């Protein structure tokens, strides 16, 4: 089955018409849906996205998008449990020469565990980690 990890950058691009990646993100998302791709993300990514969309003008968009993620059978949102947090912190500690945040580290751990090769993002950190990024 075709599966892609969805990062915060893609959610922001999809939800914000003024984002420079908005049009490309919508085209990519539509192509992924047409090819029956499954989407995986995490509750850390959801939280980061909601924080970015916490302004009054964007909040309703965030709520609608997040509710859609949780209600869709095409989506899996991975909860960050104690084990995943420990692995994420370990990677975060190891990557002293990189500017990877903890959310990125947890996303990388999830994507590796699921043996994914593609990440729906513009974030070059995922490319540094060996993934193909879809927003370029």
Automatic annotation (TrEMBL):
Q: Which residues form the signal peptide?
A: none
Recorded GO MF terms: RNA endonuclease activity
Which GO BP terms sit in this record? Answer: rRNA catabolic process
- Superkingdom of the source species: Bacteria
A Pfam family it matches:
PIN
The PIN domain extends over: 4-131
Name of this chain's protein: PIN domain-containing protein
What organism does the UniProt record list as the source?
Answer: Methylovulum psychrotolerans
């Amino acid at each position: 089955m075709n599966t892609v990890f969805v990062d915060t950058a893609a959610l922001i691009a999809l939800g914000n018409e003024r984002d420079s990646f908005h049009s490309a993100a919508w085209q990519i998302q539509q192509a992924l849906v047409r090819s029956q791709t499954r989407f995986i993300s995490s509750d850390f990514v959801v939280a980061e996205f909601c924080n970015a969309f916490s302004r009054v003008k964007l909040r309703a968009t965030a709520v609608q998008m997040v509710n859609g993620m949780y209600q869709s059978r095409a989506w899996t949102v991975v909860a960050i449990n104690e084990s995943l947090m420990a692995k994420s912190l370990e990677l975060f500690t190891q990557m002293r020469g990189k500017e990877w945040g903890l959310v990125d580290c947890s996303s990388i751990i999830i994507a590796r565990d699921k043996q994914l090769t593609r990440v729906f993002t513009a974030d070059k950190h995922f490319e540094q980690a060996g993934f193909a990024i879809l927003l370029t």
